[in-house]
Amino acid sequence: MSGGIGPERLSLNTATVREQWDLAQCIEGCARHGIAGISPWRDKLHEMGVDKAARAIRDAGLRVSGLCRGGWFTESGAINQAVIDDNTRAVDEAATLGADCLVMVVGGLPRGSKDLPRAWDLVEEGLARTLDHARKAGVKVAIEPLHPMYAADRACVNTMAHALDLCDRLGDGIGCAVDVYHVWWDPALAAQIERAGRDRLMAFHICDWLVPTRDLLTDRGMMGDGVIDIPHLRGLVETQGFEGLNEVEIFSDRDWWRRDPDEVLATVVERARTVC
Amino acid sequence: MSGGIGPERLSLNTATVREQWDLAQCIEGCARHGIAGISPWRDKLHEMGVDKAARAIRDAGLRVSGLCRGGWFTESGAINQAVIDDNTRAVDEAATLGADCLVMVVGGLPRGSKDLPRAWDLVEEGLARTLDHARKAGVKVAIEPLHPMYAADRACVNTMAHALDLCDRLGDGIGCAVDVYHVWWDPALAAQIERAGRDRLMAFHICDWLVPTRDLLTDRGMMGDGVIDIPHLRGLVETQGFEGLNEVEIFSDRDWWRRDPDEVLATVVERARTVC
């Protein structure tokens, strides 16, 4: 598990250079730096066009480690048709891209609500309805537990244990996206990764937790600049047989979003070798 | 559980007006607003002098819902005598004040370390050694699980489940301080409060989670201004027989720390009646 990883085991989440590059530039950048995969956000995908993007990704020989993101089930306080339609489209886009999974950011509290159990129920209903279509389309659905600091406004599923409880009830075709930033602190993490097992470990995202963290959303660190023991966490998922790519997703408006994106990718590749 | 609470069931954590008032002013403020209790931070306590403060608090007829704080076991990477001595002094100060408990903020990762299990072990050792003295002094020790966003730099115990696992191993005289700000998001919370039971529920802290939260440390909200269902959480601890005060602890350098402290206390009293 030690010794770091080469770019042939990396994927670039487009959020990492979202301020600098469009999707076509991200695809070219991955090819230029030998990065094996990509994980597009849907805004960049729509901007380029899904079919054109799928072709360009295929032509560049890149694997699609995930599509970010479906979900966002809770905001209006009910599962309405617009939310289901949007998630259906996300499933279809993931199928077109041949993505390893569709990553789900499930949504926080409904607007004006303090009723967390109600939000949890909405998430389960939304996932169940999306999953019906995803199974037919052959797309795996990956719940991404977000850090508890996002419980109110982004995702009310904040631990692997909660995500796996949902998976237990929802059945086949659904699992977890493990992002070290969101779960590194959890004393139950090792046990829950083991509980998940190979079939439900659908994505592994890396970056780092900075001390201090100056913003709740956009102050993630480059691997090695923070306190997360990434090789240890990578070891936990690999012990279960996870063979997906190590997807680099860094939100950083004070640092990495302001740099030359080729410098960002070169740093990603170097840090993957030395500290991941 | 509904209908709100009167000031005779409130305690003022001095952090709520820490920029405006010293401890003597906090004591007078509580008396003026009919707030039944106080929970001093140790810096303000030392500034006033422990014996003088204990006398003034007694003369004002206030209950001491807690002393903030002991702990901070991990920073140097070992449990050294200085840390034990400081916690011993904190225990003695809590005894002098007749505090309901000594609140423990256990510390994050050791400086330069990414080894979370090592930090957990240090915390357990530090608590065990402090507890020996606390039992003799008749002081209850309350582990405060902090929000996971503080795992690196303030406290690596971030859930009630983890705190109670420690309590199970450490035995009598140790329990939890439940601060709604730190634990409101946790899907295991209700079960863990039930697991804790009356004897291990030693403190209940209230404030609110703002959306958006603009700073990880100093952007807590006044009760009612955020998304936490405080009456529900209060109901959970009261169902277990908790009879302590509702301690108001608000870190707010953009808002409440800039206001007239009598306005802050009047707002606390009004919000306790209307939204807690």
From TrEMBL, chains A, B:
Question: Is Metal-binding set as a keyword in this record?
Answer: no
SUPFAM superfamilies registered for this protein in UniProt: Xylose isomerase-like (SSF51658)
Q: Name one Pfam family in it.
A: AP_endonuc_2
What Gene Ontology terms describe what this protein does at the molecular function level?
isomerase activity
Keyword list (alphabetical) reads:
Isomerase
**Xylose isomerase-like TIM barrel domain: residues covered:** 30-261
- What is this protein's name? Xylose isomerase-like TIM barrel
